[in-house]
Design a protein that fits this description.
about 130 residues, alpha+beta, 4-stranded antiparallel β-sheet, 2 helices, elongated
């Protein structure tokens, strides 16, 4: 009986640690994706003088083939897909299962750690957007 209680206590301590580790891993992957997208769009902007036109969810914008990594067309680590907004210059993660806790970690790595201000924001009813400057 004592052994079962000890195992239960150890499991109770391990599960939150595992969840935090999983959140940090997901945030790191999303941060990396957004940084790669930022680099690709920056390069396109420098070479063409303007951003590409808007594109559908999970669709590479016209002229961006060869610039964007494959991750742009694939489902993100937290579900959902990426989209280029066009003239407003946002890469948006739509239809994701991401929590604000995970996305705050992403925001901290990319911006100011506040999902309501800065270049990385929560867009209510849409998802999370990263403004390409």
């Amino acid at each position: 009986m004592i052994v079962v209680v000890i195992i239960g206590l150890l499991a109770a301590m391990a599960i939150p640690a595992f969840q935090r580790s999983q959140q940090r891993s997901q945030a790191a992957r999303l941060t990396n994706d957004f940084r790669q997208f930022d680099s690709a769009f920056q390069r396109y902007l420098m070479e063409n003088g303007q951003g590409p036109p808007a594109a559908g969810v999970g669709v590479v914008p016209t002229g961006m083939t060869g610039y964007l990594p494959v991750a742009f067309t694939q489902t993100s680590p937290l579900g959902g897909n990426y989209q280029w907004s066009g003239p407003s210059s946002y890469v948006v993660l739509r239809n994701s299962n991401a929590t604000d806790a995970v996305m705050t970690l992403v925001d901290t790595a990319l911006d100011d750690g506040d999902l309501t201000t800065g270049d990385f924001r929560k867009v209510v009813g849409v998802g999370y957007g990263y403004h390409i400057q």
